[in-house]
Amino acid sequence: MKVKVWGARGSVPAPGPEMNRYGGNTSCVQLMLSDGETLILDAGTGIRSLGLALKSGMPTINILLTHLHLDHIQGLMFFPPCFKTESRITIWGPASPEATLEHRVARYISAPLSPVEVRELPCDVSFLDTPASEWEIGSARIRAGSVTHRGPTLGYRITEGDTSLCYIPDHEPGLGAALEDAEPEWISGFDLAHRADLLIHDCQYTDREYPEHIGWGHSPVSDAISFGRLTEAERLLLFHHDPLHDDEFLDTLFDDAVSRWESGGGAPDRIQLAAESIEVELGPTRELAAG
Amino acid sequence: MDGAQKPLELILARNLLTSISTPAFLVDSAGTLMFYNEAAGALLGMPFEEAGQMEPDEWSSRFGPLDDDGEPIPFESLPLTVALREGRPYHANLHIHAAEGSVRAIEVSALPITAERGQSGAMAIFWPADMAGDGAEDGR
User: Shortest CA distance to A142 belongs to which of A165, A169, A126?
Assistant: First the structure.
């Protein structure tokens, strides 16, 4: 399994020269499975570049949405395969008693927010609620579970062979609970992340910023580190950077994260701050490389 | 992890109950007592950390919900049980065995916790009757 980050920013795109190293595109991660299948985690603005890089003639493209906040779907309308008749796209997302997934996504891909409607897309696109139990896409087994955020939100665990990745980009597991004191079964997202080879997790705020954002659905550094440590993730990739955090600020945030990670017994090479174009090879080689 | 992951709505409910000063219980869909908060522990004379999770017959007998005549209330008639079974809120006045062997009159409001994929459990918030307003009525 190979992982590539196409967008690691949270909330809203944050372009600019001061953001170049970590990138300004919102959430999008590509998983390349050993059987050639590609899974896409979230459709933030990073999916536009991903779509440009995809080879034509791909089998069905599966997009797994964690939730429908704009920073996780904004790129859909600019995903080049959506405008190719030969494309087959399946979009998975959280169920809702209120409306179908297609109807909810169509609130964005419709007038007056969009010049096109979902029904006008030339590709063959289908919208599916994530199943309650594990399901398979290609060589991967997928599990979705509800996690603490604002509104219905999923985390995903994707397993291929003995290798697993957990993706919880928007998550506030410490809301109303001290993570370090909580029993594992009472921690949001715990079973999804438990002993994952790679955990991609929300780390939007510094601990100093967090008190002004309690209940917004995101984690401070300390909770992101605690969650990674408690779940015994093999490797932690900190994600969903606040749009106010430029490269220099994120460097400082990362220094703090590494310090906390190491004081909890983590190895410094097992933690990384997500940046656009970073690739992670999971499996026997387990290499981390800048793209 | 020793136990199965709890549904998110139960986790959030527990976090809420932990944060309030009104006594409260939380049960899962089978009626197992999953948690009660510090205020409930003070009223009952035993913190949850000591009591731990309890099966329905255990918690219902230990805390002895009693009617006005001091007779045990059948488990199927308890507010939490009604909320779970019927999927609706339920309010009642009853008595419980409280701290130091006392019997306290309380008012209980129970609410089912229902998520997209079905009912996960229920929570009950209760007040000593001597703290309740004059206008409180038995909802049965």
Answer: A165
Please name the fold of domain A2-289.
Answer: Metallo-beta-lactamase; Chain A (3.60.15)
Tell me the percentage of chain B whose pLDDT exceeds 90. 59
CATH number belonging to domain B8-131: 3.30.450.20
CA distances B93 to A5, A216, B23, B78, Å, are 57, 38, 15, 10
Confidence check on the interface: ipTM exceeds 0.85, yes or no: no
pLDDT tens-digit series, residues B62-91: 887 899 888 989 989 999 999 999 999 999
How far apart are the CA of B38 and the nearest CA of chain A, in angstroms? 14
Residue B27 has pLDDT above 80, yes or no: yes
Contact B3 A96 (CB under 8 A): no
- Summarised one tens digit per residue, pLDDT across range A206-232 is 999 999 999 999 999 999 999 999 999
Mean pLDDT check: name the lowest of A134-148, A237-251, B100-114.
Answer: B100-114
pLDDT digits (tens, 9 = 90+) for B120-129: 899 999 998 8
Q: What is the DSSP code string of chain A?
A: -EEEEEE-B-SS---SGGGTTT-S-BSEEEEE-TTS-EEEE--STHHHHHHHHSPTT-SPEEEE-S---HHHHTTGGG-GGGG-TT-EEEEEE---SSS-HHHHHHTTSSTTT-SS-GGG-SSEEEEEEPPSS-EEETTEEEEEEE-SSSSS-EEEEEEETTEEEEEESS--TTTTS-GGGS-GGGSTTHHHHTT-SEEEEE--B-TTTGGGGTTSS--BHHHHHHHHHHTT-S-EEEE-B-TT--HHHHHHHHHHHHHHHHHTT--GGGEEE--TT-EEE-SSS--EE--
Alpha-carbon distance A50 to A62, whole Å?
A: 13
Q: Where are the domains of chain A?
A: 2-289
Strand pairing partners for A201?
A: A168, A238
Taking the domains of chain B in order of start, what are their residue ranges? 8-131
The pLDDT assigned to A59 comes to 78
Residues of B within an 8 Å Cβ radius of A: 1-9, 11-12, 14-16, 18-19, 115-117
Is A98 in CB contact (< 8 Å) with chain B?
Answer: no
> Which of chain A's residues have a Cβ under 8 Å away from the Cβ of B19?
176
